[in-house]
Amino acid sequence: MTFSLTSEAARVDLPVRQPFDAPGIFRFLADRAVPGVEVADLSQEDRLRYARTLTLPHGPGAVEVVAQRAECSTWRLGARLELACAADVAPAVARVRQMLDLDADPIAVDAALSADPMLAPLVAETPGMRVPGAVDPHELVVRALIGQQISVAAARAHLGRLVARSGPPYVSTFPDLDRLFPTAAQIVAAVPQPPADQPLDPGRPLRLPRAAIAAIRGLAGALAQGDLVIDASVDGERLRTQLLSRPRVGPWSAAYIAMRVLGDPDAWLDGDVALLAGAKALGLIGHDVPKAAGHRLLANRATAWAPWRSYAVGHLWAATGRAATGKRPQ
Predict the structure, then answer these.
(1) Residue 195 falls within a domain, yes or no?
(2) How many domains are contained in the chain?
(3) pLDDT tens digits for 43-75?
């Protein structure tokens, strides 16, 4: 890693093992970008941009990551960091690398998944698949809980309202960034529990049912008070056990959080609708198989993809997207 610190920003090179599926991971982040906190520009095929605000050890900041296509379809990555203190360069870079899964071994992953003849065409179509990580464990937990059983677009709308109500303002030199994602304590303060004996206020910060709001407040409160510890150093099984003990946190959410917070390469999102759709599009599961049976069959098939099931999830999600647009891997 090399960087230069200027009065404007720290410029950082981000080495990455090739192949690297830059379009896939940048698109994932762009689809979920919360206005004010994140912004992405994927309008150029050979130059992708994603930027977001950060809460760092020495103060607030922001990062802009640019992926530039180079020779032989390789990608070069660089970042600019807005920092309150130069001491935050290392933690900021570490978070960016975790978010983009830059330290993965794509050769090993692709070789293992290509051993399955049904996955081999997906790997050939998209070599170097990456599993998106998280820049802040508490933020990711809140986002995962809000996004349960609703569309990506709906979750983004809920999160946008939450950030507009409770996210601290931030002044950035990067366009369209003006908010920090709220801390767990700020969410508890900004999201009151709706009274049980009154109609739900349509102007409430989170337009979710009472039980969902109670679950999010409870989880945020536990994070703020330290009763629930979630960070990249927590043991995976302990993390899942802690999460599953919370109201309205099921196996899917626990696995998703483990995948993105811990960088678990072998998380399997049992019951994920998009995974089943992708499997059916590929012919892994028959279209006439009932949903519950399909999920069981797919989970059984996925055992052969260990210890890289998180990457198989990415390939099946991509297959779902291609099926929706009528495209199939060649």
Answers:
(1) yes
(2) 3
(3) 999 999 999 999 999 999 999 999 999 987 899
Domain end residue (candidates: 209, 231, 258): 258
pLDDT by residue (tens digit) across 76-106?
Answer: 999 999 999 999 999 999 999 999 999 999 9
Residue range(s) defining the domain that contains residue 284 = 273-325
Q: In angstroms, rounded to a whole number, what is the distance separating the alpha carbons of residues 93 and 29?
A: 17
231 lies in the same domain as 182: yes
For residue 136, pLDDT over 80 is answered with yes
pLDDT at 5 (0 to 100): 42
pLDDT, residue 1, reads 42
Question: Phi/psi at 14 (nearest 5 deg)?
Answer: -120, 90
Within the chain, strands assigned E span 3-5, 10-14, 38-44, 47-56, 59-69, 75-82
Co-location of 20 and 87 in the same domain: yes
Q: 216 and 157 in one domain?
A: yes
* Shared domain check, 228 and 143: yes
> Looking at the domain assignment, is residue 63 inside a domain?
yes
- Residue 73 Ramachandran class (φ > 0 left, ψ -120 to 50 alpha, else beta): left
Q: Same domain, yes or no, for 171 and 250? A: yes
> In this structure, is residue 268 part of a structural domain?
no
Do residues 322 and 328 make contact, with C-beta atoms less than 8 angstroms apart? yes
Residue type (1 letter), 101: D
Distance CA 325, CA 251 (A): 30
- The answer, yes or no, to whether residue 324 has pLDDT greater than 70, is no
Q: Is residue 114 part of a domain?
A: no
Give the rounded percent of residues in the chain with a pLDDT score beyond 70. 95
Q: Quick check: helix, strand or coil at residue 177? A: strand
188 contacts: CB under 8 Å, gap ≥ 6: 217, 220, 221, 224
What is residue 3's predicted lDDT score, i.e. its pLDDT?
39
Tell me how far apart the alpha carbons of residues 25 and 314 are, in angstroms, rounded to a whole number. 9
Cα–Cα distances (Å) from 222 to 5, 190, 213, 228, 304, in that order, read 38, 16, 14, 5, 37
Give the SS3 label for residue 67. Answer: strand
- Of 60, 77, 103, the position where a domain reaches its end is 103
